[in-house]
Design brief:
Number of helices: 9
Radius of gyration: 21 Å
Low-confidence stretches: 235-243
Mean pLDDT: 92
Strand content: 25-35%
Length: 390
């Protein structure tokens, strides 16, 4: 049974990086703004590596900050290691990168949305977009609440018909076990929007106590911190200017570097037939910045080793992220290949690696403003446009 739930200027569907920025920008411009997340526990969630920036992406975060965005400010509040990349090259390619505390980043951003005037944060799944004369009129939730809106921003990330792959196992899901958005994908197709299938992936997480860091190269943070936000400055020994009075810069949490080897590559080559990427089960196109370890071994067959970074998920957790080892192979194969890496011989998984396939819009349907050409008032932001994460 449907019911009328109110009138708003704009609704943001999805509350990841893109959705949070869209919601805050709209509300700060004086628009009465709704921001929807299928679960408020995953607002600003970082289901992949909890880092912000890096080569090229660091520049993008700076541009968001220059436009009044929140990502840089939130990173400065929650980082646990900060580094400037490409320092051996020219200043034009210097790139800020920060490892952040995943939970603190999420909590800080959610609280920022909750405090923002004109912004209304709600937990609901949007299943229908109502259009009249090729113009959006309202949206409807899975429990029948109808919101009249003038515009919407689709910022659904990897949730549209999300499907997880781990070897022969495949099931409908968004990241971190959150329900996928199946009905909204159907609605977009019914409205004549051309949908593509994309895929990305994430590596396993391992327990810090099972790692031998003595066999790895330590990667320390910078002594001199360059904040992401132009509005912030950092003292020599603490982050008081960033409201991080609990954090001593000299005690940044280190990352570590190890490498794959021929044993790793042999296990991968012998088990390629078990990978959904190579068996044909996954049909989606892969995003540029998230190649699986299978892809790297196949494409760069002459390369003897690949860099693997071991990075912390946060201050109050023992989970470590194994950057560079994304995979869709079965878990037992993943364990075998991870344990060939120096320092990971006794690695204990807390979460296996997986690939995720999801729907996104064919980007030639968008204007330069990222509004759909066919439907006035429907804009798209983030990974629904076929882009990679920040």
């Amino acid at each position: 049974m449907s019911y009328y739930a109110g009138e708003y200027d704009i609704a943001i569907i999805g509350a990841g990086h893109a959705g949070c920025e869209a919601g805050l920008a709209s509300a700060r411009l004086g628009m009465k703004t709704l921001v929807f997340s299928s679960s408020l526990e995953v607002v600003a969630n970082m289901p992949c590596n909890p880092n912000i920036g890096g080569t090229s992406k660091g520049h993008l975060v700076k541009e968001i900050d220059a436009l009044g965005g929140e990502m840089g400010k939130n990173t400065d509040k929650t980082f646990i290691q900060s580094r400037m990349l490409n320092m051996s090259k020219g200043p034009a390619v210097y790139s800020s990168r920060a490892q952040v505390d995943r939970k603190r980043y999420q909590q800080e951003m959610k609280h920022t949305l909750e405090k923002q005037e004109n912004l209304y944060l709600k937990q609901a799944e949007i299943v229908k977009i109502n259009v009249e004369s090729q113009q959006v009129k309202s949206i409807e939730t899975n429990i029948g609440a109808i919101y009249a809106v003038k515009s919407i921003v689709l910022a659904t990330g990897t949730y549209l018909k999300g499907r997880i792959y781990i070897g022969d196992s495949a099931y409908e899901s968004g990241p971190d076990g959150v329900f996928p958005a199946n009905e909204l994908s159907k609605c977009l197709k019914n409205l004549g929007v051309e949908i593509m299938r994309f895929k990305t992936g994430t590596p396993a997480r391992v327990n810090k106590n099972s790692i031998d860091f003595s066999k790895m190269e330590i990667q320390q943070g910078d002594e001199k911190i360059v904040p992401f936000s132009f509005e912030n400055s950092v003292g020599a020994a603490h982050c008081a200017a960033l409201d991080r009075r609990d954090f001593d810069i000299s005690k940044q949490i280190p990352c570590y570097l190890t490498y794959t080897n021929e044993k790793t590559h042999k296990i991968i080559r012998e088990n390629l037939h078990k990978s959904p990427l190579y068996s044909g089960k996954i049909e989606g196109t892969g995003t540029r910045y998230c190649p699986s370890i299978e892809d790297k071994v196949v494409r760069f067959a002459d390369k003897e080793r690949h860099q693997i970074f071991i990075e912390p998920m946060g201050i109050d957790t023992e989970e470590m992220y194994v950057q560079g080892m994304s995979s869709s192979l079965p878990e037992d194969v993943q364990i075998a290949m991870y344990r060939t890496l120096p320092g990971l011989e006794n690695a204990e998984f807390t979460r296996p690696a997986y690939a995720i396939e999801y729907d996104c819009v064919e980007p030639s349907q968008l204007k330069l403003s990222l509004e759909l050409k066919k439907i006035e008032g429907v804009f798209c932001a983030g990974q629904i446009n076929g882009t990679s994460r920040i």
